[in-house]
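Ligand: zinc ion. Inputs:
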Amino acid sequence: MKIFNTLTRRKEEFVPLEPGKVKMYVCGPTVYNFIHIGNARPMIVFDTVRRYFEYKGYQVNYVSNFTDVDDKIIKKAIEEGVDSEVVSRRYIEECRKDMAGMNVKPATSHPQATLEIDGMLEMIQVLIQKGHAYAAQDGTVYFRTASFKDYGKLSHKNLDELQSGFREIKVTGEEGKEDPSDFVLWKPKKEGEPYWESPWCQGRPGWHIECSVMAKKYLGDQIDIHAGGEDLIFPHHENEIAQSEAANGKPFATYWMHNAFLNIDNNGHVQKMSKSLGNFFTVREISERYDLQVLRFFMLSAHYRSPLNFSAELIEASKNGLERILTAADRLRDARKIALGREQEEAGANQGAEENKTGKHTQEEQAHMAAAKELSTKYEAAMEDDFNTADAVSAVFELVKLCNSTVSGDSSVAYIDFMKELLERLCDVLGIVAGRKEELLDDEIEAMIQARQQARKEKNFALADEIRGKLLNMGIVLEDTREGVKWKKA
Ligand code: AMP
Ligand code: ZN
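Predicted complex:
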């Protein structure tokens, strides 16, 4: 398996620290609002990476944090006149809902920065003891970048250039810095801000130290993969490396993976989607118009290191593409029902006789199965090549074509099952539920119809109508017939 490593700027063979295991840390969102679809890109991409490792038999320890103390959270809390914890708790909950909608698996651990302050104080103390950090007069603690010889190795920046660059920008309140490129580990509280006691001042941690500490606590000093959006390469990840390696005395992450931006075309002017530019769609907004599987499918239609432009046309195209897969899965399920009925009938007719398979049919099916296996190999080869989901999706479409042209009610159940399981498995690695959702939905519809019948029995017509309305919203039309309630898709 090859992974593009930002650290070496090369695709490298994946070699885990421990055989059969993957330790992975993905920087999570700052929770002060609903997540936008730019934030969703790393969630979907790295969840897919995780799923592929699991498909290959690896045990993945996947850690992704919530940054729940930050200027933006505090600002929002002040605006609302509530504690910043109220804001962060609310948006963590909403983020979890969005993740579930996008079929992003919950992480093995989802640590929150505010619950890990002790670990941060400890790491900062170690850094001070080792001469990598110092406290200024006002109680701010800074990391001494000049003390870490590898500073700049991830972003491929040179410390001298960085220093002269920083010298141009004088920031008030940072007079206590020894060097302009030093960065904050701990800062004094301001009026009305949340704070914690520390040996240096009442205050709160800097953003970078949070991730170094949470990665250490939940995964250990050394991890396999550290990931996030490409805007995090500098300074966030560069600073994480400096802190972790200086404190722990070991290389931090073997592979650094970064997704490219999700952009938006603003009258021919392509921009990164971001909250500060105000050009974003939240995942919640998209969910009002599309099943979030469509959003997931859209994200995976491009390679994660290529910029991706969001547009109404492209999301529509993804909707249609996904529909093709789901329709194929429906057809497989329908064909299976017919084939099963036929085979059971044949078995009944031939009771006691040797099973009489039509040789020609089976041979043909075997050839198709071999072709399907080749597509599965093609799919894996794409994923092994730095998670090229775009090519993997193409292989899925080829499989869909093969299913559509070769599966019918006349096929053998064994053949249909083979194709159905393969299609479902390959989709599942991408986090796309092929088929099963529809089956679930059928059960849900039946349950709702039962509830409506019960309501009518109890003469609760308002409730009965409400349920009918809900079903209608889901595109289900009810028909009251003498044989009972029938339903069909509108
Ligand atoms: P934030 O909430 O800004 O800390 O971002 C959370 C994650 O979303 C980080 O990994 C960012 O790099 C990523 N991210 C933010 N905006 C975008 C975007 N427009 N495209 C891709 N990734 C993004
Ligand atoms: Zn981080």
